[in-house]
């Protein structure tokens, strides 16, 4: 996947393994386990650009639902509840989307 060059494969595997069950995804834990929290602002921006699949400048709910698949093709989709909780955690300005600055704030929190 496109994030493999930025993150260690072993970290990606471990982070995905920790959230294989439905309703087990916790964004703070995932960002820490996958190593994204420790990355530079540039690397976080690269991750954002991969996750923002329609290149709109925002991560929308549908893109969040497929968030884990940006790390590994066979990863599960987030449940509706996980997706809504993830969006609520990242959407600081309440517009229903996560912008680059909101994403960076969420990753570093």
Automatic annotation (TrEMBL):
<feature type="binding site">
    <location>
        <position position="91"/>
    </location>
    <ligand>
        <name>Ca(2+) 2</name>
    </ligand>
</feature>
<feature type="binding site">
    <location>
        <position position="63"/>
    </location>
    <ligand>
        <name>Ca(2+) 1</name>
    </ligand>
</feature>
<comment type="function">
    <text>In muscle, parvalbumin is thought to be involved in relaxation after contraction. It binds two calcium ions.</text>
</comment>
<feature type="binding site">
    <location>
        <position position="93"/>
    </location>
    <ligand>
        <name>Ca(2+) 2</name>
    </ligand>
</feature>
<feature type="domain" description="EF-hand">
    <location>
        <begin position="78"/>
        <end position="109"/>
    </location>
</feature>
<keyword id="KW-0677">Repeat</keyword>
<keyword id="KW-0106">Calcium</keyword>
<comment type="similarity">
    <text>Belongs to the parvalbumin family.</text>
</comment>
<feature type="binding site">
    <location>
        <position position="52"/>
    </location>
    <ligand>
        <name>Ca(2+) 1</name>
    </ligand>
</feature>
<keyword id="KW-0514">Muscle protein</keyword>
<feature type="binding site">
    <location>
        <position position="58"/>
    </location>
    <ligand>
        <name>Ca(2+) 1</name>
    </ligand>
</feature>
<feature type="binding site">
    <location>
        <position position="54"/>
    </location>
    <ligand>
        <name>Ca(2+) 1</name>
    </ligand>
</feature>
<protein>
    <recommendedName>
        <fullName>Parvalbumin</fullName>
    </recommendedName>
</protein>
<dbReference type="InterPro" id="IPR011992">
    <property type="entry name" value="EF-hand-dom_pair"/>
</dbReference>
<feature type="binding site">
    <location>
        <position position="95"/>
    </location>
    <ligand>
        <name>Ca(2+) 2</name>
    </ligand>
</feature>
<feature type="binding site">
    <location>
        <position position="102"/>
    </location>
    <ligand>
        <name>Ca(2+) 2</name>
    </ligand>
</feature>
<feature type="domain" description="EF-hand">
    <location>
        <begin position="39"/>
        <end position="74"/>
    </location>
</feature>
<keyword id="KW-0479">Metal-binding</keyword>
<dbReference type="InterPro" id="IPR008080">
    <property type="entry name" value="Parvalbumin"/>
</dbReference>
<dbReference type="Pfam" id="PF13499">
    <property type="entry name" value="EF-hand_7"/>
</dbReference>
<dbReference type="GO" id="GO:0005509">
    <property type="term" value="F:calcium ion binding"/>
</dbReference>
<dbReference type="InterPro" id="IPR018247">
    <property type="entry name" value="EF_Hand_1_Ca_BS"/>
</dbReference>
<dbReference type="InterPro" id="IPR002048">
    <property type="entry name" value="EF_hand_dom"/>
</dbReference>
<dbReference type="GO" id="GO:0005737">
    <property type="term" value="C:cytoplasm"/>
</dbReference>
<feature type="binding site">
    <location>
        <position position="56"/>
    </location>
    <ligand>
        <name>Ca(2+) 1</name>
    </ligand>
</feature>
């Amino acid at each position: 996947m496109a994030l493999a060059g930025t993150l260690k494969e072993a970290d990606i595997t471990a982070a995905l393994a920790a959230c294989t069950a439905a309703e087990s995804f916790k964004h703070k834990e995932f960002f820490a386990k996958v190593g994204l929290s420790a990355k530079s602002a540039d690397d976080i921006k690269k991750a954002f650009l991969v996750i923002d699949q329609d290149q709109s400048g925002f991560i929308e709910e549908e893109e969040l639902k497929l968030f884990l698949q940006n790390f590994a093709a066979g990863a599960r989709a987030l449940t509706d509840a996980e997706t809504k909780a993830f969006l609520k955690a990242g959407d600081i300005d309440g517009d229903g989307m996560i912008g680059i600055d909101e994403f960076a704030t969420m990753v570093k929190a």
